[in-house]
Design a protein that fits this description.
The chain is of the alpha+beta class. Helices cover 50% and strands 12% of the residues. The protein has helices at residues 9-24, 28-49, 62-65, 83-94, 103-127, 133-145, 181-194, 198-211, 224-244, 260-274; strands spanning 56-60, 74-79, 149-155, 162-167, 170-176, 280-283, 289-292. Pfam families: MTPAP-like_central (PF22600), PAP_assoc (PF03828).
């Protein structure tokens, strides 16, 4: 009645996404509180394990990338002097990328890693009052921060043993000598720099999954890093389609033709309706591609319930 032309629905959705991200993204006070928490923990860890020369504390995950929600955990890895052995093994493993497709080699590497972790635990038993590093850390937390801890648990019988605790209102997960976390955070920072739509989509979809309790991998949900790679893959392939159709320049993710509302609906359409999880895997290497999961059948990856697992 006022003569104004209503904005298209996708533009309205775009504006809603922008407003939502400005509300949910980390605020300066939140960032300061978390950084202070990390510094306090670093001091405690160094005091527990013999100083900075014997203990290196590194933040990874959403805390390192700045993609955390108000309820997100702080992920921390502690590297002991044996970290160099892990680094050397990782470099050796990277020399031959073809070995990644060999399931027997993967299983052997996993077995050797587990045996080495047990050896490390034995050494800590000698030097740490009969306690593993996880137990020593838990003991130090209980002694130093008892009044401010509302939750403390040592989880050792998992693929990645860790200490989980809640300090005031912050949830922290700590593991030891686990490679890959900081490197994954750096990789995601590079994607964030080259793909402007990536950051708002991550916040919206992380919150969407969290509200529906679909963000816990051990419950069959989609973890944060997997979700981020799914979004990266979608943007890579969308950019390729737009470039091939002449709608944008190659890798120009910041094109004016980009509408977050359209991109979000496209994401849901791809992974909710069109994507064939049984036959297709996802790769984000070399500007992204899809591959056939059937090629993994010969090495035992493509059988039983794994037919329905997302391959990235």
């Amino acid at each position: 009645s006022n003569g104004k032309v209503p904005a298209p629905p996708l533009v309205l959705l775009h504006n809603e996404i922008v407003d939502f991200v400005s509300l949910i993204e980390p605020q300066p006070k939140e960032i300061d509180e978390r950084e202070l928490m990390v510094e306090k923990f670093k001091i405690l860890a160094e005091d527990t394990f013999g100083g900075p020369e014997k203990c290196r504390v590194v933040v990874f995950g959403s805390q390192a990338t700045g993609l955390f929600l108000p309820t997100s955990d702080i992920d921390i890895v502690i590297y002991t002097p044996d970290e160099n052995k892990h680094d050397n093994e990782k470099e050796t493993g990277c020399k031959d990328r073809d070995m990644e497709n060999n399931e027997k080699v993967k299983r052997l590497q996993a077995t050797l890693e587990k045996e080495k972790e047990l050896d490390e635990m034995d050494r800590w038993d000698i030097n740490g009052e009969g306690l593993s590093p996880l137990q020593r850390l838990a003991k130090a937390l209980e002694q130093e921060w008892k009044e401010k801890l509302s939750y403390l648990e040592v989880i050792e019988n998992t693929r990645i043993p860790l200490v989980k605790f809640t300090y005031l209102s912050l949830n922290i997960d700590v593991c030891f000598n686990q490679p890959g976390g900081p490197e994954a955070a750096q990789l995601m920072k590079e994607y964030l720099d080259s793909m402007p739509p990536l950051r708002p989509l991550i916040f919206v979809l992380k919150y969407y999954l969290s509200c529906r309790a679909l963000n816990e991998p051990y419950r069959g949900g989609v973890g944060s890093f997997m979700l981020q790679l799914m979004i990266v893959s979608f943007l890579q392939n969308r950019a390729r389609e737009d470039f091939n159709s002449g709608r944008m320049m190659e890798n120009d993710y910041d094109s004016n033709s980009k509408c977050l509302g359209s991109i979000l609906l496209g994401f849901f359409e791809l992974y909710g309706l069109d994507f064939n999880y049984i036959t297709t895997g996802i790769s984000v290497r070399d500007h992204g591609s899809y591959f056939s999961k059937v090629s993994y059948e010969a090495i035992g990856e493509y059988s039983g319930l794994k037919r329905f697992v997302i391959f990235i």
